Amino acid sequence: MKKTIITDFFTTLSRKHFFKSLSFLTIRILSIRTWKYNLKLEKKILDYLNLRESKIISFYNARSALYHCFKLIWIKKDDEIVINSYNCISVVNSVIQSGAIPIYAEIDKKNLSFDTELLESKITENTKAIVIQHTFWKSAQIKKIKEIVSKYNLVVIEDCSHSLWSKYDDLKHGSFFDFAIYSTGRDKVISGVNGWFLVINNTEYFKNISKIKKNLILPPKKLVLKNLAYNILWSISLKTYDFFGLGKAIIHISRKSWLINEILDENEKECNNSDLNYLLPNSLAAIALYDIHRIFFYQRDREEISNFYDANLESTYFKPLFKELVIETLNYFRYPILFKSVEIKNDFYNYMRKNKVILWHTWSDSNIVPKWTSNEITMYKWDCEVAEDIASKILFLPNNKNVTKKDLKRIMDLIEEYEFLNIENSSLAE
Ligand SMILES: Cc1ncc(COP(=O)(O)O)c(C=O)c1O
Questions:
Q1: In which residue ranges of the chain is pLDDT below 50?
Q2: In ligand 1, which atom is closest to the CA atom of 263?
Q3: Closest ligand 1 atom, CA of 91?
Q4: Which of 173, 193, 214 lies at the terminal end of a domain, its last residue?
Q5: Best of 95, 161, 275 to mutate for ligand 1, by most ligand atoms within 8 A of CB?
Q6: Which class for 392: exposed (0-12), middle (13-18), buried (19 or more C-beta within 10 A)?
Q7: DSSP for residue 140
Q8: What range does the domain containing 333 cover?
Q9: Does the CB atom of residue 62 touch ligand 1 within 6 A?
């Protein structure tokens, strides 16, 4: 039976995650929420980032981490916060929940982060903060952004959700500005199923940390159990994915029966989530702590596969997006490819899917992801053409540790076959 190659999240899920989650669901059930691993994980993250003088707070999710960061800097109603126009709804949600207005800045084609030529035009007297995003794993133009923000009195937050491990100028992402946020969500560089960290580099804000911490509570037991169940059910499902559809059925049933929780819940889709005070529970911290020790291996596997694609990919229809830009130490978290048109992208996606290669497409289709977010809610004004264009034509090749050499050969053969089948259909490549 041909294996289905999946590019999707759970990119680090392994037998260890399965057994760790199982132990918390059984013999360690009494310690799924209470402290021990959180403090260890927080210390480990600061050590690993070489930011021992900074402070860190761990949260259950992104909205809580960013929302409390905005509280720390005294964001008021109708203040403006400049964010990347190719972005995740969680970021928008946190801005809106804080009372501020999200201002979308255009991206640069080269690194999918701020276009520094256009950034300044988005700064007004109401701008209080800027959230810089290192998209997928590429560095934003830190030096230029520093020059721009130094002219204004702005708080700068680095969103390193995709770029744990990546470096710029020999310093880890997250070292450059007032604040940094990191994610250990299940679809990120390392996974604790859910998890967010706010790193505070600017000492001016240290005095308010205890006030923030006082408002934080542990998430309900049921929510933590669902997170642990996720690792169990997805591990089984991945192992049985091609066994008469058993894996797919397990995912389907567990979603429908609410045995696991989705990355974004219904309230968040509406930018209307008010559960903003959750700390990271102990069990998820323990799983993320295991993963952070493995980060070197994940990076190595992703880099090897990305280098293989760089050396071997040839297509009339798409090109690797970051190929010529590998000049820093990076984590190679995703392998984005950009198509000549939306039609080819959709056609190629369907062709690969038919051949049991499922490409990652969550960040395809719409520049504020996921695609069903309404612009009325996100306050996006259709004014960032590059972001819209890239989002409509992008897809991602598999580059996680589950992809074997044999899988890579199959992927390359399929790409070659696609070229061959469409050689006469020149209109696709126009
Ligand atoms: C750049 C960025 N920031 C924030 C988030 C929110 O992360 P989480 O899913 O862990 O809440 C995401 C999610 O994909 C993201 O891509």
A1: none
A2: 9
A3: 4
A4: 214
A5: 161
A6: middle
A7: P
A8: 293-419
A9: yes
